[in-house]
Fold this sequence. Notes:
Layout: E1 12-16, E2 22-26, H1 40-46, E3 57-61, E4 64-67, H2 80-88, E5 101-105, E6 108-109, H3 114-125, E7 137-141, H4 145-149, E8 162-163, H5 168-177, E9 181-182, E10 217-221, E11 229-235, H6 241-244, E12 253-256, E13 260-265, E14 277-281, H7 290-300, H8 327-337, E15 339-343
Parallel strand pairs: 5-7, 6-8, 7-9, 14-15
Antiparallel strand pairs: 1-2, 3-13, 4-12, 5-10, 10-11, 11-13
Helix pairs in contact: 2-3
Amino acid sequence: MAEMYGTHHSKMIILFRRDEHAQINIMTGNFISYGRNKSGTLVKKLQTFDFSAVRAALIASVPGRQNIRTTDPERETLFGWPALRHILSSIKSASPTSKPHIVMQCSSVASIGEKWMKDTFLKALSPTPSLPPQRPKFSLVFPTADEIRRSVDGYASGGSIHMKTENPGQKKQLAYLKPALCHWAGDHEQASEYVPIVNGPPLRQALRRRAAPHIKTYIRFSDQAMTNVDWAIMTSANLSKQAWGEAADATGNVRICSYEIGVVVWPALWQDAGVAEMVPVFGRDMPETLTSDLAIKSANDGGIGEEESHDSDEEKTDEEGGKGMSEQDKKEQDKLKGKIGLRMPYDLPLIPYANDEMPWCASTPCIEPDWAGRTWPAGFGGS
């Protein structure tokens, strides 16, 4: 590595298929064992393929320095946070008059400092495309020790999740981040069900509470109810200067240490397909169908149960033609045709940390056993 503190942190699989297509899979998971490969031949082969049909923007980091004053993004590829700022500045909000909510979610938070976070990274996440926007609310989703303890692999899954909170500098950073911290799972040891806030938004479950988060996502919701998505990023890049780049120096140079790769998606990429909105979906890949929406509404309203339903074939909903549907139902179904789903990795609404809760720190011993009876690190406390 050219950079002493850099890593090859990208996660990607490239498959050349027998039907003469190349399939590129960008993810956030590591491989346990791997080998070294030279990329020169791979690059040449990829250059023979047409990727213009892909509905996403690639955002990557490459070790080195790049001058943001002299680099023309129309001619050269930007990397790190300058690339992020450039892409996001062209995306319009679905609700420009509403206060947006940007949610960062990662598996590692490095020593970043309040100044870099506020003046560099958060500004890159919220550039001004045209009119002065509402100042976004920012949240950071990160698991607590209790959530790691109750995850599928217990404490063992916390070895790849890092936020140090021990020395004075780390404690100062935690104090700055604490108001933004939200739970990954959003439940606690004594509760198995969400207790909704009176008159608050309903719980929408991603069904991933017990999976310890190694994924990294950055999502801008256009409204405080978090029902519409302006843009979403899935990447290998955690919240660190090494991944996204240092602040620009006096001459405009930005230093990046690590290789990273990710994708950005937003509704306008599907505009030619009639899509106008991107909406969060939970436990599925597509927006809920009208049929399921009506079934939920019927159940919530105390409607007929399964044993009481005696609709004839003529009265049942025909998804293609809308046969037997009211005009209002047809309008609702038409609305769904203009939406594309973004599968959420965490539940909504977000649950903020309580005052006495702390993020998981892999270097802090935990004597309370996980669900499998193990302590952290293994064997600590005589277990």
